[in-house]
Amino acid sequence: MPPVMLLALVGAAGFAGYRIVSSLLESSKSSGRNRAKEMRGATSSARDLGKLEWDEDAGVYRPIPKREH
């Protein structure tokens, strides 16, 4: 009988550990979703920079300066 009780105890401990890990993972996912929503809300919308030209010195595209006539 002791091996059966030991097996039941190990099974109960394993199930409890599974539930704890599962709840921790779920709370981590939800906090990550909340942070992602905050980050999306904090960013500004994209600006229209107009036409771009390649800047060789900097190695990036820059807006073409508007020339006044």
Describe the structure.
The chain has 69 residues and is mainly alpha-helical. It has one domain (2-63). The protein is 59% helix and 12% strand. A two-stranded antiparallel ribbon has the order 1-2. The longest helix is centred in the first third of the chain and has 41 residues, at 2-42. The protein is rod-shaped, with a radius of gyration of 29 Å. 0% of the residues are buried.
Quick structural overview:
The protein has one helix at residues 2-42; strands at residues 52-55, 60-63.
- Low-confidence spans: none
Strand order of the biggest β-sheet: 1-2
Helix content: 55-70%
Give average pLDDT, whole number: 85
Number of domains: 1
* Number of H/I helices: 1
Q: Determine Rg (CA atoms, Å).
A: 29 Å
Name its key features:
single chain, 69 residues, mainly alpha, two-stranded antiparallel ribbon, 2 strands, rod-shaped
